[in-house]
Amino acid sequence: MVPPTEILYKMTKFGELIDAEKPVLIDFYTDWNDVENTVLTLRDVAAALGDKAKVIKIDIQKNELLASALRVKGNPTFMIYKNGEMKWRQTGFQDANTLIGIMQDFV
Question: What is the CA radius of gyration of the chain?
Fold first, then answer.
């Protein structure tokens, strides 16, 4: 069982992460998914957006409580947060150009 203080710490860290003025694209994934394609896609998105946004991967299995709290059911699940508010969410693979276009709406 995970100690309550560790749960609180992880949730606090997540809150700090998404509470930025820059948009944050989060990819909730698992190792058994097609990670190689997702990594390359996210690398392309990060390169295209530069310092205008953050791109982050969160392993669902290592962050089960967070994934559960956010009701992540599918893999991958993408979310965009800005100023602490979820702006967009989609489950299923997304190509780099689609993600870049969506992120452009929030930069």
Answer: 14
